[in-house]
Amino acid sequence: MTALSPAPATVPAPAPPRRRLPGWASGALVAAIAVAVLVVTSALTGEHELTSSGTIQSAVRLLMPILLAGLGGLWAERAGVINLGLEGMMIMGTWGAAFSGLLWGPWAAVIGGILFGALGGLLHALATVTFGVNHIVSGVAISLLGAGLTKYLSTLIFEPISRNPRQSPLITGFDTYSVQPLAGWLAKLEDSHLAVLSDVAGLLRGVLSGFTPVVIIGLVLVPVSYWVLWRTRFGLRLRSCGENPYAAESLGVNVYLHKYAAVVISGGLAGLGGVALVLNPGQLGYLENQTGGRGYIGLAAMIFGNWRPGGLLAGSALFGYVDGLQLRAGGEAVHSLLYGGSLLAVAVAVWWAARRRWLPAVVALVAGALAYAVYYFTDTIPREFATYAPQLVTLVVLAVAAQRLRPPAADGLEYRRGAGD
């Protein structure tokens, strides 16, 4: 009598992989949620400046320097070079744009700003890539050098004309453009003061009217940067230098060349951010300290976006919107954002709870309750605090986003050819 062999154990089938939304769909969903929160907040608080076309136009113009500086940081750090000198390169770009624009017009201002910013990037690359200087030390030095150099040049060149060493004479800017006839129809709908519809019309009209060629260039550079860095051979090699430069070297990649190219492009983009400030229709000229720390905010937007162009655009839009809102409407409008923040926190808590992540859900609910308590027990935000709203938003956003960040593996590390053997 033969013994019966045990039946083979059944192996459970693996769970099907969770389907994730494509990047463009996730971005569209986030944008739709942000618009919905703004529209509801405007309707419930009566603060219509939240969704007015004027506020959105200001936000678009103010997000451009942040976006371009962040793109500059993205290019450099994807190649493994931390660029803390973005602020100084932006400052150099403002002076170069004002000087070139004063002599030859707005398109010359664009070229001059890019070249001056690229010069700062070249100095940073020379220090960090060739001589191995600490990236943070070099970046701080570039920022100090940019501020000092432009102050000297402004005193030397602009003061005899403007009678003020801190600013240039007014320069010629670009004309503004609108998408017609759509912008005209949206203007009529916004002025009709219909609930929800007028708010949505104001948001759309702000995006589709009052923009300049610099705005178009900045927005186009987002998909262009993504395509070059993630869809071309050059971009793959450049990113490999930021992940593992010695492995890239073993495959025949000229690491020095790609790092230099990335940092010089980074400086040029930061300089273009300075151009966006100089050619802002409300400014049209160089002014000392006009960057206002936007180079550092651009770096924060890049980190918030997890070193990706789409996330960088979202972070820049957030900071630019808060900056434009406080400049246009002051503390009352910033105060109403607390109400919108509480609504958003409740939505986030529900989302976490649906995924059975109870701790993040509770934290989001507590944050929403605190925001609503401040909104309920105060009438406005003092202008002294409202002025620094973009910087405060930067700190909050970075604190929230810090748990999911994934920088390039070799970011900030010194590279020497042949040292990995």
Give structural notes.
It is a single chain. About 70% of the residues lie in helices and about 0% in strands. With about 425 residues, it is mainly alpha-helical. Among the domains are: about 45-170 and about 210-330, ABC transporter involved in vitamin B12 uptake, BtuC (Orthogonal Bundle); about 175-210, no CATH class. A two-stranded antiparallel ribbon has the order 1-2. The mean pLDDT is about 85.
Entry summary:
The protein contains 17 helices and two strands. The chain is mainly alpha-helical and 421 residues long. Among the domains are: 45-172 and 212-330, ABC transporter involved in vitamin B12 uptake, BtuC (Orthogonal Bundle); 177-211, no CATH class.
SSE topology string = HHHHHEHHEHHHHHHHHHH
* Estimated structural class: mainly alpha
Whole-number average pLDDT?
87
> What's the overall geometry?
globular
The overall strand count is 2
Q: Strands of the largest sheet, in order across it?
A: 1-2
CATH-derived topology of the domain at 45-172 and 212-330: ABC transporter involved in vitamin B12 uptake, BtuC
CATH C-level class of the domain at 45-172 and 212-330: Mainly Alpha
Percent in strands = under 5%
Give the uncertain stretches in residue-range form: none
Describe the biggest sheet?
2 strands, antiparallel
Number of helices: 17
Give the C-alpha Rg: 24 Å
Give the name of the CATH architecture of the domain at 45-172 and 212-330. Orthogonal Bundle
**What percent of the residues sit in helical stretches (DSSP H or I)?**
over 70%
Distance between the termini: 66 Å
